[in-house]
């Protein structure tokens, strides 16, 4: 493990001359895949978070922040350690030349992880990764459909038309089928474009909504400092507008005592 950590640091910061030219590529690859992993700043997390019933929005925000740690720093780092310890990976330079070949004729992707698991658990490791990937992909499709349907329902809330929802379902099934018969490079390329567009648009939304978000966080921390084990949220004393649902929740809480 110390050697693996040293390899990661030397490769990331260019301490090894052989890897120095690939710092930009490593950062680019890491950022792209990191966004896929935890979706931080992408704008898809609020859909599921908004459906959670919590006494204070900051509480759910902290849960969402913790999920970034679990997703990226824990799960992804564990995967990287497995691949690096077993040496089942390849390194390609900016000019396309192979700098390191630990797994010949295998492109970067899930094959590295399957080979790593297979070394530790022969006859079971690769199958385990394949089954895990199936469930990861299936739940991802369901989650993205939920997000898309929520968006369509909100944008067409005055039309009350089921036709657009049907079109969305057909498009989702068609895209999944198309992705199964095309190369993974095409799928990643289209995904990178979509994620990039969403991230840039969401950054604008974050800048607009940062004030009420920070006010909610300060209110949560202030109530905790006062000794409240479960802080309650009321947007009106904070001057937060357009939070009708939280106003109704606060009023209901007062009526119930």
Give a verbal description of the structure.
By secondary structure, the protein is an all-alpha fold. The protein is 73% helix and 3% strand. The chain is built from 11 helices and 2 strands. Strands 1-2 form a two-stranded antiparallel ribbon. A hairpin with a 5-residue loop joins strand 1 and strand 2. Helix 6 packs antiparallel against helix 7. The longest helix is centred in the C-terminal third of the chain and has 42 residues. It is globular, with a radius of gyration of 23 Å. The model has no long low-confidence stretch (mean pLDDT 83).
Distance between the termini: 55 Å
Strand order of the largest sheet: 1-2
Structural class: mainly alpha
Mean pLDDT: 83
The Cα radius of gyration reads 23 Å
The total strand number stands at 2
Beta-strand proportion: under 5%
Helix count from the secondary structure assignment? 11
Order of helices and strands: HHHHHEEHHHHHH
Largest sheet: 2 strands, antiparallel
The share of residues in helices is: over 70%
The low-pLDDT segments are none
Coarse shape: globular
């Amino acid at each position: 493990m110390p050697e693996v950590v040293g390899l990661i640091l030397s490769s990331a910061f260019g301490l090894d001359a052989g890897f120095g030219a690939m710092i930009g590529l490593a950062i680019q690859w890491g950022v792209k895949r990191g966004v896929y992993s935890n979706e931080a700043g992408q704008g898809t997390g609020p859909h599921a978070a908004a459906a959670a019933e919590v006494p204070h929005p900051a509480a759910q925000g902290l849960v969402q922040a913790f999920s970034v740690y679990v997703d990226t720093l824990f799960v992804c780092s564990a995967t990287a350690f497995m691949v690096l310890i077993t040496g089942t990976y390849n390194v390609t330079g900016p000019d396309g030349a192979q700098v390191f070949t630990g797994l010949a004729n295998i492109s970067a992707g899930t094959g590295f992880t399957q080979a790593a698991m297979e070394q530790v658990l022969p006859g079971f490791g690769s199958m385990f990764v394949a089954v895990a990937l199936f469930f990861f992909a299936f739940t991802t499709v369901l989650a993205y459909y939920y997000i898309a349907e929520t968006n369509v329902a909100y944008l067409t809330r005055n039309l009350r038309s089921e036709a657009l929802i049907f079109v969305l379902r057909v498009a989702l099934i068609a895209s999944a089928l198309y992705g199964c018969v095309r190369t993974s490079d095409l799928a990643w390329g289209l995904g990178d474009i979509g994620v990039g567009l969403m991230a840039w648009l969401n950054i604008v939304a974050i800048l607009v909504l940062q004030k009420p978000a920070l006010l909610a966080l300060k209110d949560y921390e202030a109530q905790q400092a006062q000794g409240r084990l479960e802080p309650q949220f009321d947007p009106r004393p904070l001057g937060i507008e357009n939070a009708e649902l939280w106003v109704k929740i606060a009023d209901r809480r007062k009526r119930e005592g």
